[in-house]
Specification:
Layout: H1 2-27, H2 31-44, H3 49-61, H4 72-89, H5 106-113, H6 116-124, H7 138-144, H8 148-156, H9 166-172, H10 176-184
C-alpha cells in the first residue's frame, strides 16, 4: 500500500514538473518545445484533470489544434452537453438565456467548466456574450476559474473586457496568467 502511495506521489510530481517546464518554455517563447511538453503531459498524465485542462488551454492559446489529443472524457462530456443544448433550444431558442435548477445560464456554465466547444456552439446559436447574471458575465466567470483560452474565445466574440470586472476575478482567484492576458487586452486595472 505504501508503494502505491509513493508511486501516485511520484506521478503527481512528474506531471507537475512536466507542466512547469512547458510553462518555462512558453515564457521563453520556445513554442515548439512548449507544445511538445504540453502534448506529452496530456498523453502520459490524462487523469491529472487540472494539469491536463491547463495544458489544453495553453495549447489552444499557442494556436494548436487540441481536438486530436483532448481527453476522451472531456470530448464526450462536451459532445453530450452540445447535444443536450441542441435538443433544448430546438423549439425554444429563448432557453439559451434560461437558468437551470442551480441558477446557471448555459454560456456562463460553459465558461466555468472551460468547455470551449460548448461555448462556441452557444455563441453560434446567438447566446449573449455579455449577458449579466447577478454580478457576473461569461468572461468574468471564465477569468475567476482560470480558463485563459475561454477568455480569449469570449473576447474574440465581442465580450466587454471590463464588464463585471473579469480582471478583478482573475486576480482574487490567483490566476496570474489570466490577469496578465486581460491586462494585455486593455482591461481596466481600476475597474
Amino acid at each position: 500500500e505504501e508503494l502505491l502511495k509513493a508511486f501516485a506521489a511520484e506521478q503527481e510530481f512528474a506531471a507537475t514538473a512536466l507542466f512547469r517546464l512547458a510553462e518555462v518554455r512558453r515564457k521563453q517563447e520556445r513554442k515548439e518545445e512548449a507544445v511538445t511538453l504540453y502534448q506529452r503531459l496530456l498523453k502520459e498524465f490524462p487523469k491529472n484533470d487540472l494539469l491536463a485542462r491547463l495544458s489544453r488551454e495553453n495549447l489552444v492559446a499557442l494556436g494548436e489544434d487540441v481536438s486530436q489529443i483532448a481527453a476522451a472524457e472531456l470530448v464526450d462530456e462536451e459532445t453530450r452537453e452540445i447535444e443536450r443544448l441542441r435538443a433544448l433550444i430546438a423549439n425554444s431558442p429563448d432557453l439559451l438565456s434560461a437558468k437551470d435548477k442551480d441558477g446557471w445560464v448555459p454560456l456562463p456554465l460553459a465558461a466555468k467548466n472551460g468547455q470551449l466547444r460548448v461555448a462556441t456552439f452557444l455563441l453560434e446559436q446567438g447566446a449573449d456574450v455579455n449577458q449579466e447574471i447577478g454580478s457576473h458575465t461569461p468572461l468574468s466567470v471564465a477569468a475567476e476559474h482560470g480558463h485563459k483560452a475561454m477568455c480569449e474565445l469570449l473576447l474574440v466574440r465581442g465580450a466587454d473586457v471590463d464588464l463585471a470586472s473579469p480582471l478583478g476575478e482573475a486576480i482574487v482567484s490567483g490566476h496570474e496568467n489570466v490577469s496578465e492576458f486581460l491586462l494585455q487586452k486593455s482591461a481596466n486595472p481600476d475597474g
